[in-house]
Amino acid sequence: MNPRRALASHPSGRSFARRLAVAFGFVLLAWLIGLIWFGAMLPDKVADTDRKTDAIVVLTGGSGRVHQGLELLAQGRARKLFVSGVYRGVDVQELLRVSRQSPEDLICCIALGYQADNTRGNAVETKAWMSEQGLHSLRLVTSSYHMPRSLLEFNRIMPDLEIVPHPVFPATYDRQGLWRWPASPILIASEYSKYLIALVWDLLAGMRAT
Questions:
Q1: Count of C-beta atoms within a 10 Å radius of residue 187
Q2: Is the dihedral of CA 167, 169, 170, 176 positive or negative?
């Protein structure tokens, strides 16, 4: 007799399979409930538009982020702009040209970071730059769906700095119609899973520190 078939037909084997299925179902249900909560908690507006900070930090990777950061710098929301996670070979002039800004007005106040290739790397890279510049507060510019994970990583890496979230809302992103846009559930599910991983990593780091 096939060993797998024998195990399945044995009472203890069937009981184990049922328990496994129930456990998987609970995990899946918890994940789905968490996904709905995560979608609901995403910001739908900039809560604090007026506060000035020492720096504006833009995380590359989504549409409208760099342009928003440049606009905030031009409006005097901070004295310096740091763009983290820039592709190799991209300089300030190119960044300004792509974003249709005047190099003469802003080029002196912009710094680029080329080392980061993920959100935690953005936080590490930004911390080094902030420390080098002697800055203590920042306005964090990234996409709305990316903001929870970004704040988690930045607050862990820089617990003593003031961080003002400034979410950006891509043209194709509508939180109110989040589940009607075909790509939204995939995008949010992916970001939620990454958020959970970052949260577990944060908890483990806290346990190691105690």
A1: 17
A2: positive
23's tokens:
């456990």
Task: Give mean pLDDT, residues 180-208.
Answer: 79
Whether 1 maps to a domain, the answer reads no
Residue 154 or 15, more confident: 154
CATH of the domain at 156: 3.40.50.620
Q: Is residue 111 part of a domain?
A: yes
- Whole-prediction pTM value? 0.81
Domain that holds residue 103: 55-209
Look at the block and give the residue holding tokens 């959100």.
Answer: 119
63-71 CB contacts, 8 Å cutoff, 24+ apart = 63/170, 63/171, 64/143, 64/168, 64/169, 64/170, 64/171, 65/141, 65/142, 65/143, 65/168, 66/95, 66/98, 66/99, 67/99, 67/100, 68/141, 68/166, 68/168, 69/141, 70/96, 70/99, 70/101, 70/106
Q: Tell me the backbone φ, ψ of residue 131, rounded to 5 degrees.
A: -65, -40
| Residue in the structure block whose two tokens are 């980061």 | 116
Please give the tally of structural domains in the chain: 1
